Amino acid sequence: MADTAPSFATLAEDERLFQNSVYEYADREIRPHVREMDAAAAMPPALVQQLFALGVMGIQIPESHGGAGASFFNSILAVEALSRVDPSVAVLVDVQNTLVINALLRWGSASQQDRWLPRLAADLVGAYALSEAGSGSDAFALATRAVEEGGSYVLTGRKLWITNAHEAGLFIVFATCDPAAGHRGITAFLVERDTRGLAVGHKEDKLGIRASSTCELVLDGCRVPASHVLGVRGEGYKVAIETLNEGRIGIGAQMTGLAQGAFDHAVRHVQARRQFGRAIGEFQGVQFELARAATDLEAARLLVYHAARMRDAGRPVVKEAAMAKLFASEVAERVASLSVNLYGGSGFVKDSPVEKLYRDAKIGQIYEGTSNLQLQTIAKQILPAV
Ligand SMILES: Cc1cc2nc3c(=O)[nH]c(=O)nc-3n(C[C@H](O)[C@H](O)[C@H](O)COP(=O)(O)OP(=O)(O)OC[C@H]3O[C@@H](n4cnc5c(N)ncnc54)[C@H](O)[C@@H]3O)c2cc1C
């Protein structure tokens, strides 16, 4: 009996067209600049403008607010497609859509949405500032203070590792109004870049995703009106947990796209490179390695798409998102490493595209919760009583 049920990896026609159009753009416009952006550790402002024009910076923003009015799943497709070419560009789009816009759509008041969503769809880059020097995995041990003072809040502290900080005009900043209350003191604030007392500090010089900016954020008596509280005072931990749970699916998509990009290079290379009088792809040892990589890749994509489709169906995705990120980031490292191996010596030098993807892969096991933290999340879901 023929099985006509579509798999999670089956894309609807409009999804397929959307993903192809993003990939074609990336292949044509971004690929020629990947190496120089990596070397310069910078992303040209014109490229960021192009991403807005392409419509990938406000994918879930309703059309009434100037966005594409599309699904979370479409954000995942865009991140995956961009990452096949450059995971640095992909993470800029990922943070914008799966963290910043996602948080505003879920937690923003009508006036906050009216004020920022049209700009986020048009020209405003967003960033998500949770981590600090003393609070990474233990994110809710953050020390940034928010002190209420006559209708506004004064923020003081230092955020570390903030993706998009160089380009961003809007930051979601997590701070505590009451350190004694632990996670229940944490509040999320919408802070515009030109707010007095906010400064973007040191930019990190990184191993991978070098064109993506990662900076310190310094808050020194930064005053924001109470109307800039995102969600409810003392419920910033919910904003963080819920957005990061879904954001992880985006990192899974970034890592799946990266693995696909590395795999594509490897497949081309093994057909072109000849040794012992034959294309190296004719050797069974090489074929088996690629067969395993293809299997890994398909499994990673299925986990990512499954989690994203469940999220759009309004179902809980805590376990599924953690599994997708955990597995896809491991696959990205394995497939990028294999691709370097299959390139031989030419995979070890900057002239090869796979050298960069190998470096880029490492971050997947670190940000938006390290692999150990994903395992902890999965374990809690499968052993709830322990
Ligand atoms: C390039 C980059 C971009 C980033 N972008 C952002 C951003 O935009 N916004 C933001 O807020 N943050 C961002 N981060 C921060 C990132 O989320 C943290 O680095 C990450 O959560 C890990 O925290 P940490 O670096 O403090 O490591 P630590 O928490 O110190 O972890 C170190 C090691 O200890 C392990 N470990 C810690 N606790 C446990 C435990 N309970 N059980 C088992 N193992 C444990 C970890 O798995 C890890 O291997 C970014 C980081 C980088 C490098």
Structure description:
- The protein has helices spanning 13-30, 34-40, 45-54, 72-85, 87-107, 110-122, 236-272, 284-312, 318-343, 353-361, 371-382, and strands at residues 126-129, 145-149, 152-163, 170-176, 186-192, 198-203, 214-225, 229-230, 274-275, 278-279.
- The longest helix is centred in the middle third of the chain and has 37 residues, at 236-272.
- The mean pLDDT is 96.
- It is built from eleven helices and ten strands.
- It is globular.
- The strands form three sheets. It has a four-stranded mixed β-sheet.
- The relative contact order is 0.12.
- Helix 5 runs antiparallel to helix 6 and helix 9 runs antiparallel to helix 10.
- By secondary structure, the chain is an alpha+beta fold.
Keywords:
alpha+beta; 386 residues; binds flavin-adenine dinucleotide; single chain; 11 helices; four-stranded mixed beta sheet; globular
